[in-house]
Design brief:
The complex is a heterodimer of chains A (696) and B (128). With 696 residues, chain A is α/β, with parallel strands linked by helices. Helices cover 49% and strands 19% of the residues of chain A. Chain B contains four helices and five strands. Chain B has a five-stranded mixed beta sheet, sandwiched between helices. In chain B, strand 2, helix 1 and strand 3 form a beta-alpha-beta unit. Classes of the chains: A alpha/beta (696), B alpha/beta (128).
Chain lengths: 696, 128
């Protein structure tokens, strides 16, 4: 066992002194006699001085060797000695060799010199164990504190190292920066390309719409002629027809009718896409629809399939009758088409919460999950042996869904291959009237214009201008306020002053027009800043300099469509602060946020308005979270809404097991409070499929 | 820069090495002492090394040099208080400090110096 007890650098005469002191100290601690301590120290001193003189310094190491020896190694990287043996005989080393028990020199020219000085410990001395040696090492460190010079040297060396590493880091940063710049250029190029493509698609979509509407118009004229003339022929206006001729003309006529239907569908589709189709809202009884459909569909019936109309509950509707009719006719005729044998049934599932939910179910071939996903796309036709035989445009369902959306409702399907399909249609019972449930909360649902405008006088001008239209004005004084207001309101339009405290209105404009969910909100930039070009570049719908002309403003606002309903989040929580926290967390989201202070109201709102996601508290006084979840899951159109649990309680695995599949995540309230971050909540919402916009 | 103090006592200089002497300090002492001898016209130097635990060949040589320098300046030097271990080590190193007067302690060293001085005076008065 050889242990190095200590070592020190030998650079100055002061180091030599330390080496000498170390010799004495170690000699004493290891039981060397006083005389021998001095002998060894003297020897080390002499050899060390040589090292200083000839090699400009080196190291001194102190070893304990198991032959009970204290050995001192003095080594250097100097020029070395040509003949170590001769050096040993020399006058100075000869004296040194008399002081120690063994002296050995390893050296060669150019390879430095290693001198071992060995002193045997007396037999009376106890042999130190490793613990003792460790203590010795510590003692050495304590008793020989570094000299000021040594310390200074160490510090400057450390400083140099630090400087070097800092320089290296800087070089690294520069390199990274370059790389980032490079990447950035790439991204910019990509963006440009994407923009270009988006524009192309936009153009293409417009072209398609125009093409559809023009073609339909062009087709309808000759088709109408065919229909009219075949009717003339069948009416025998120009003389009699033979039986054969009559049958042929009947064929011509029925083909023309089918073609007309297709053209009408196409035209409707083009109209909805161009946003030109308008609603003609009337009041009527649900019963009327039933009667109409019965009459219309009777001719389609074949012997093998039954068409069943379950009697509807008495219900007065206020919506577009023709469009509702069209949707149901489409669904029913589709059902009949794909049900060679069995039944097709129309029934009312629910009329609760001012929402009419209808189901058209058949016992036909069914639709595979893959097909379900693209069922509502234009010109989609499901591959099936039946389809090959049947004619269709593939437009019916896509048109139906769009019509349903126009009526403020939704259309969705559940189906299993081989057992049949059920199409669900959910529409508000009354369009235009404020749904009672939403007003029962803190929200305003009347038409409102958001004025991002710090000046109260201007605001007053807006208010007086828009009052006659029955439109109220909500003020926001900063971008931050505006964002908050946009969470709560679905405004008819935004009037934006660009000069705002903290942050300019341009950023808000860019933000609004950037995100697909807020893009359709009309924005009027009304400002003192004369920069029409920038406003238009960022997507402002109109630009006006102050003072604004009231008549103009009234005109502009009055021709705007009423908002169709932006996707919203529903927060069900009895604590106002918790609701506030969620609102804060979603500060920069484009979603509307609706709040319910208890489970029952929350359920009604979820049922009525179809939120994009629900943030749900677990512990509420009247109805707890589990009950809300249970009821959500029991309704066909709320059981797919993603739910995020936002709770104070620690969720046990058992509790988690009770969650229905629509629960996508659970976020602890206390965790968010502890680290002050809403990150978890935001992430959970992203997981729930909420699109944060490209900026995130 | 630390220095070893040189004290004047009448016509003698007293040097007491109280610290572990390193090479530069020894060299410095040699120079300081020569200057001081000339400045004061001292007649004898008493070098007390009783605090030195170790005298290696270099310091041994320095002591020799100090004594030689003093002698050239016609000043007697007495090294006093050498520890036995130091003495043994010096001998083993092959250094017997030729030309250096030694005494066991300061008192004996003073006596020695005084004797030498009287002797010189006597010799001055009664030349052979």
């Amino acid at each position: 066992m050889s242990t190095r007890i200590s070592s020190l650098e030998l650079k100055t005469p002061a180091d030599l002194l330390r080496a000498r002191q170390m010799c004495t100290l170690l000699g004493r601690e290891l039981g060397l006699e006083k005389q021998d301590q001095i002998r060894l120290a003297s020897a080390v001193s002499d050899v060390g001085r040589n090292t200083l003189d000839h090699a400009r310094g080196g190291r001194v190491e102190f070893w304990f060797r198991d032959e009970r020896e204290l050995a001192v190694l003095v080594r250097d990287q100097g020029p070395g000695i040509a003949d170590p043996e001769a050096a040993l005989q020399g006058r100075s080393l000869a004296g040194v060799s008399r002081l120690v028990d063994a002296l050995r020199i390893d050296s060669a020219p150019g390879q430095g010199t290693r001198v071992w000085l060995v002193k045997r410990l007396p037999v009376t001395a106890r042999v130190p164990d490793s613990e003792c040696l460790l203590r010795l090492q510590l003692a050495v460190q304590r008793t020989l504190p570094p000299t000021a010079e040594q310390e200074l040297r160490d510090q400057s060396e450390q400083l140099l190292q630090l400087l070097e590493s800092a320089a290296q880091r800087e070089r690294e940063l520069q390199r990274l920066n370059l790389e980032l710049e490079e990447t950035n250029r790439g991204v910019m190029a990509l963006y440009a390309e994407l923009n270009e493509r988006a524009e192309n698609y936009q153009n293409l979509a417009e072209l398609k719409t125009r093409f559809l509407s023009e073609v339909s118009h062009e087709l309808r004229t000759p088709l109408n002629s065919i229909l009219a003339i075949s009717r003339l022929l069948l009416d025998r206006t120009d003389g009699d027809l033979s039986d054969e001729q009559e049958r042929q003309v009947e064929f011509i006529r029925s083909s023309a009718v089918a073609l007309t239907q297709l053209v009408t569908d196409l035209l409707d589709l083009a109209k909805t896409e161009a946003g030109k189709m308008s609603l003609r809202i009337t009041e009527f009884d649900l019963e009327d629809i039933w009667t109409g459909l019965r009459g219309m569909l009777r001719p389609l019936l074949t012997g093998a399939t039954q068409l069943i109309f379950d009697d509807p509950p008495p219900l007065r509707l206020r919506t577009d009758e023709r469009k509702l009719n069209q949707i149901l006719r489409n669904l029913l005729s589709n059902g009949l088409k794909f049900t060679p044998e069995g039944e097709v049934r129309l029934r009312v599932l629910s009329t609760e919460n001012d929402q009419l939910v209808l189901a058209v179910s058949d016992t036909g071939v069914g639709i595979s999950p893959r097909d379900q996903a693209r069922l509502f796309e234009d010109f989609t036709q499901v591959d099936s042996p039946l389809q090959a035989k049947l004619h269709g445009t593939g437009l019916g369902l896509s048109l139906s869904r769009r019509l349903a959306q126009m009526l403020g409702g939704r259309l969705w399907v559940e189906s299993e291959l081989g057992t049949g399909s059920t199409f669900f249609l959910s529409i508000p019972v009354a369009i235009g009237a404020a749904p009672a449930l939403i007003t029962s909360t803190e929200r305003q649902s009347e038409s409102v214009v958001l004025a991002v405008e710090p000046d109260n006088d201007v605001l007053l001008a807006y208010k007086t201008a828009l009052q006659p239209l029955g439109i109220s004005v909500q003020q926001a004084r900063s971008v931050r306020d505006a964002r908050r207001a946009l969470q709560l309101l679905d405004p008819v339009a935004v009037l934006l002053e660009v000069l705002l405290p903290y942050r300019s209105g341009w950023s808000l404009l860019a933000e609004l027009k950037h995100h697909p969910l807020t893009r359709q909100i009309p924005v009027a930039v009304v400002t003192d800043v004369d920069n029409r070009a920038k406003a238009e570049e960022l997507g402002a719908d109109v630009f006006a300099r102050k003072p604004v002309d009231r008549a103009w403003l009234r005109n502009w606002v009055s021709q705007l469509p009423r908002p169709a309903g932006r996707p919203h989040l529903l927060v069900i929580d009895d604590e106002p602060t918790a609701r506030y926290i969620v609102r804060e967390a979603l500060n920069d989201s484009p979603y509307l946020i609706r709040e319910a202070a208890d489970g029952a109201v929350g359920l009604q709102m979820a049922d009525a308005a179809g939120p994009a996601a629900i943030v749900l508290d677990m512990e509420m006084p009247q109805m707890d979270g589990f009950e809300v979840l249970r009821q959500l899951a029991s309704q066909p159109h709320t059981k797919t809404v993603p739910v995020i649990i936002h709770t104070q309680t620690t969720l046990t695995p058992e509790m988690r097991k009770r969650f229905p599949p629509q629960v996508v995540d659970a976020v602890s309230k206390s965790a968010a409070a502890a680290n002050g971050s809403h990150h978890a909540l935001v992430q959970a919402l992203a997981r729930a499929g909420l699109n944060w916009g490209i900026g995130e | 820069m630390e220095r070893i103090p040189i004290l004047r006592m009448g016509s003698y200089l007293l040097v007491t090495v109280q610290v572990d002497m390193h090479d530069q300090l020894a060299q410095q002492l040699q120079e300081d002492l020569a200057v001081k001898i000339v400045q004061t016209g001292a007649r004898g130097v008493l070098l007390d090394i009783s605090a030195l635990e170790l005298v290696d060949s270099f310091i041994g040589r320095m002591i020799g040099n100090i004594a030689a320098t003093a002698r050239v300046l016609d000043v007697a030097t007495v090294v006093v208080g050498m520890r036995p271990a130091v003495a043994i080590t010096l001998v083993e190193l092959g250094m017997s400090l030729p030309g250096v007067q030694t005494a066991l302690n300061v008192e004996l060293g003073m006596e020695l110096l005084r004797d030498r001085l009287e002797e010189t005076v006597f010799n001055d008065h009664f030349p052979e």
